[in-house]
Amino acid sequence: MVMDIEAFRKAGYQAIDRICDYYYSLEQKPVASQVHPGYLRELLPAAAPEEGEDFQAIADDYQKLIVPGLTHWQHPNFYAYFPTACTFEGMLGDLYATSATNPGFNWACSPACTELEAVVMDWAAQLFGLAGHFLNSSEIGGGVIQTTASDSALVAIVAARARYTAAHPDVRLEDLVIYTTTQTHSLGVKAALVLGLACRALEVSADDRFALRGAALRAALDADKARGKHPFVLVGTVGTTSSGAVDRLDEIGEVLKEHPDVWLHVDAAWAGVTLACPEYRAPAQLASINAHADSFCTNFHKWGLVNFDASTLWVRNRRHLTDALDVTPEFLRTKQGDAGTVIDYRNWHLSLGRRFRSLKVWFVLRSYGAAGFREHIRKGIALNAHFAALVRAAPPFALVTEPSFALSVFRLAPPLPGVADGEREAALDALNRAYYARLAARPDVLLTQTVLNGTFCIRFAVGAARTTQDHVERAWGAIQEEARAALAEWEAARADGA
Ligand SMILES: *Cc1c(COP(=O)(O)O)cnc(C)c1O
């Protein structure tokens, strides 16, 4: 019996009840799923059922079979990767959006989908202090919701390429170069792969806190241009994934003034939402974003309270997007599109159809208000500052680089008596890998690792909606406990070897 409206009503109420129970019980669950690879294939039949099944059995199997295989990103002791927002307002926005599913590719598909997106993107632009030219109401630049920051970067790079090749029609595609840094998210390399273009990752140093400086960019541009290459886009980052580094967009902007056909895309997937707070606009380089960026992206779906997916992309000039991406076959033409009175968002991204994502952004921004949004961001930063202070005060724990917004990167750096200077870094690396393996095996907290210019370290990223100072302190307890065990193990191995 497939579900009719009344059966949906019943199953829907039950689903909401069970989701509420899930949230009540979240803290009692292990943060990371404890299942082994292939666990689900062992439990599921090899093919879809021939006859339809009772929905109650299906719903029960979700609890029994799927939930144990979930890592709970909303768990208050989740400090891995970056947070992935999930709010009840966002969930309901998604539910309504899917209830009226439509592919929203042009205005006439469902006028509300296009119009709400154009409005909430302007709300978000103002929340972050973006300059007027990024607003849809400017009718020059504008904002669009993409699936991910990777899609946003790809779209920006496609637009940059189209702008560059239009200005330089004789340039061979094999001479075009995408600039990133060694700390840029893999989205730069991914875009290069997809587009069949070269990508050059500029070196950055620990002394500069892993930020790209103007001088390094200028040297690379000069060298590449001298050998006939055409760098046409730079992906700058505000808040790199590994360590939260912020490229020096002020210096970069000055250099790019001498190279005005190089597009600056600013990827602030994680940290861009801090721009909601006036006190973080300087560290997140708002003035330079407004002065120099051709495109800017941040993800509401990370730290920004809106459920995956909601990556917001703004461009200085929407024509660069539509020049690169506008394909309007006869069957997609509309009166309003032809007249140029409406946005046809299909020409602002890669696919034709699109989800009605603005609804959940609208729900969240209205329910939290700008003040509630800022409070959430400030809470994450305060919790991270608390964590960083605990690390600083407890050698042999050491921060590897300055904390950035709501991210700290640390490791154990004990004196290691008896280890020669030349072997110290290798020994610390081995010790920290063993330490992280212990930490990763714990069910009650989840952190992830990274390598910064050869140094193995551990990341602590705060921002889940339910994390409190109490949780951070309990996590710190676990972090210390495993450190004591790892250090004792190292000393025992050393005594054995001696
Ligand atoms: C997470 C992250 C990304 C990738 O985000 P997606 O939306 O999953 O593509 C890109 N850049 C930075 C700096 C990130 O932290």
Automatic annotation (TrEMBL):
Cofactor(s) the protein requires to work: pyridoxal 5'-phosphate
Pfam family, one: Pyridoxal_deC
Gene Ontology molecular functions: carboxy-lyase activity; pyridoxal phosphate binding
Entry keywords, A to Z: Decarboxylase, Lyase, Pyridoxal phosphate
Modified residues annotated as N6-(pyridoxal phosphate)lysine in this record: K302
PROSITE patterns linked: DDC_GAD_HDC_YDC
InterPro entries in UniProt: Aromatic_deC, PyrdxlP-dep_de-COase, PyrdxlP-dep_Trfase, PyrdxlP-dep_Trfase_major, PyrdxlP-dep_Trfase_small, Pyridoxal-P_BS
GO CC terms: cytoplasm
GO biological process: amino acid metabolic process; carboxylic acid metabolic process
Organism superkingdom: Eukaryota
Family: Belongs to the group II decarboxylase family.
Protein name (record): Aromatic-L-amino-acid decarboxylase
Protein source organism: Phanerochaete sordida
